[in-house]
Amino acid sequence: MKKFSVKAMVSIGMLSSISYVLMLLNFPLPPFPKFLMVDFSDIPALIAALIFGPVAGILVEFLKNTLDYFMTGSDTGVPVGHAANFVAGVLFILPTYYIYQRMKSNRGMTFALVAGTASMAILMSVLNYYVFLPAYTLFLNMPAMSGPEARAMIVAGILPFNFVKGILMSVIFMLMFTRMKTWIERQQTFKSA
Asked: Which pTM was predicted?
């Protein structure tokens, strides 16, 4: 397990708190089902990953979802939605982090965010079909969706929603990144020193 400095642990804790607050400021997008909510809580996790490495980004995602589960609970009694949010965040930040490490420029970050968005949208569609939708129906004691019903929901709702969410997060992050790039690079230098 990677050891973090005190500064890194404090920073991860602060970024997790910011991420949790951003998670509370969620909102629906009209054309999509009401249970699909947009929030920008993956942005602090991405910042943590860029500065302290991918484990830090994953920790921010984990702490954010753990805090939210204990503070707000879950409709199912178990954290199915929180697990889905965690996995979606990790699927967004990891490809973004690794591609940006290979192409450190604004263009590289743009390409990395596109890859992160595509990764999140496509893999979450597969995971929703095989894991999360069946878990919701199981824990809510609802009748299981048929294969065609689940595919229709994923193709018409979940897949496009995740693309839109990824695009919105990418636009917001790029607006921040153009101003924060020098600071992030300086923090990476201090971390490696």
From this structure: 0.89
